[in-house]
Design brief:
Elements: H1 6-9, H2 12-17, H3 21-43, E1 45-58, E2 66-69, E3 74-79, E4 86-87, E5 92-97, H4 103-141, H5 146-181, E6 184-186, E7 191-196, E8 204-205, E9 210-215, E10 221-227, E11 240-245, E12 264-271, E13 281-287, E14 305-316, H6 317-325, H7 336-344
Antiparallel strand pairs: 1-10, 1-14, 2-9, 3-5, 3-8, 4-7, 5-6, 7-9, 10-13, 11-12, 11-14, 12-13
Helix pairs in contact: 4-5
Length: 354
């Protein structure tokens, strides 16, 4: 009879069962596993994150995709560029001509006529001023009536009004000439022609009609993330963000940032005060100084999709599981500077008049 411990001898039924060795090993493994899981839940840290999806954008408005529009109405006579061409600031894009080919010649003739009218009005006013001086002298000598002197003054005023009207007409003609002289549409900045409105070359275009689309090649990039409104209340500028760009191989563990691979760092630059039409809030993320720079514009272009995780407080794994099961918001801890400021600011006390 095999040796049995004293506590087994007092339980003959248990001694008769004699569980297999494998069963006892499995039981011990389950017990150890439960203890390890409990230790992980209470001792292993977990970084809370607020996940969001977005796209790459340009920080400077001039670095964003721009529409090149027609400055004057007419039709496109010639294109100077094609899709995909690189252009410099001031380089011609298209030439627009008016429907009337003789418009510029007629405007030039009209301007010459207005100049002649101005010259005639100036000469007439000069003569009228001489008449006013002569009439005033004769009136002083008693050789002319006051009515003649007043009529000469009225004539000078009429000539002055005609001269002002002629000069205003000259200004209108010059404005029209300047607008028509701007028939060559030029690139507003350096970039690449993304697309050309081919329909504009076959039809009449109005002032402001889109001719082409220009995309800058070296913009200062940011990331626009759309975050759930439940988490937006605890997100503050300066918070670190982990980014996974579309087309870039990456492995992300949101709770353990050190394990992630192919992830790039950023920080929260600003948060929109109001939500988008979808109910999500836009969070602008900029590159994190001192960290690995983002991929070049050849790999991550404007408009590319991005997945981001805004890092928040560090809690235990068990607390994070409990929070997610109950659908609670992220942990919020007031920064030290804010808490000091709140403690230093006393509540206002109403003064009681005696």
């Amino acid at each position: 009879m095999p040796f049995q411990p004293d506590h087994i001898r007092h339980f003959p039924t248990l001694a008769g069962i004699r569980p297999p060795r494998a069963t006892r090993v499995i039981a011990w493994l389950i017990a150890i596993g439960i203890a390890v899981v409990i230790a992980i839940l209470f001792l292993v840290p977990w970084v809370q994150t607020s996940a969001g999806a977005g796209q790459v954008a340009a920080l400077d408005p001039e670095d964003r995709v721009q529409d090149i529009t027609a400055l004057v109405p007419g039709r496109v006579e010639r294109w100077y560029v094609r899709d995909g061409d690189r252009v410099r600031r001031g380089q011609p894009i298209a030439r627009i001509v008016d429907n009337d080919p003789n418009l510029l010649a007629r405007l030039a003739a009209e301007r010459a006529q207005v100049l002649a009218e101005i010259a005639a009005a100036e000469q007439a006013m000069a003569v009228s001023q001489i008449d006013v001086g002569r009439s005033g002298q004769l009136l002083a000598e008693g050789l002319a009536a006051r009515r003649d002197y007043e009529a000469a003054q009225i004539k000078v005023a009429d000539q002055r009004a005609k001269l002002a009207e002629a000069r205003a007409k000259l200004s209108r003609v010059d404005v029209t000439l300047n607008r028509q002289s701007a028939q060559t549409v030029r690139a507003p900045r350096d970039g690449r022609i993304q697309s050309i409105n081919a329909a504009a070359g076959a039809t009449l275009v109005a002032a402001g009609a889109q001719l082409a689309t220009l995309a800058p090649e070296t913009p200062v990039r940011i990331v626009e993330l759309l975050v759930d409104g439940r988490d937006i209340a605890v997100i503050r500028p300066g918070r670190p963000v982990r980014l996974a760009f579309e087309g870039w191989p990456a492995v992300q563990f949101s709770g353990w940032p050190s394990v992630a691979h192919g992830i790039f760092d950023g920080r929260v630059r600003s948060i929109d005060p109001s939500a988008q039409m979808t109910g999500l809030f836009r969070v602008i993320v900029e590159p994190m100084p001192g960290k690995l720079p983002w991929p070049s514009a050849d790999y991550v272009r404007l408009g590319g999709k991005v997945r981001g995780w805004i890092q928040m407080e560090t809690v235990s794994v068990g607390y994070e599981l409990w929070r997610q099961l109950n659908d609670f918001p992220l942990e919020f801890r007031r920064p030290a500077d804010e808490s000091k400021g709140a403690a230093a600011a006393p509540e206002p006390v109403a003064k009681v008049k005696k």
